[in-house]
Amino acid sequence: MPGLFKWGGRKEDEPRPAPAAAVPPPAPEPSNTSKVLPKVLSALAGQPSPVLMDLGPVVGANISFFGDRLACKFYVEDFFAEVEQHARAGTRDQLGAIFATRLKYPAGSIDGILCWDLFDFLDRAAGYALASRLVPLVRKGGILYGFFGQKAGEISQYTRYIVDTDDSFRLRTSPATPMPRTVHVNRDLNKMFDGLAVTESVLLKNSSRETLFRKL
Question: What is the pLDDT of residues 152-166, one digit of tens each?
Answer without folding.
Answer: 999 999 999 999 999
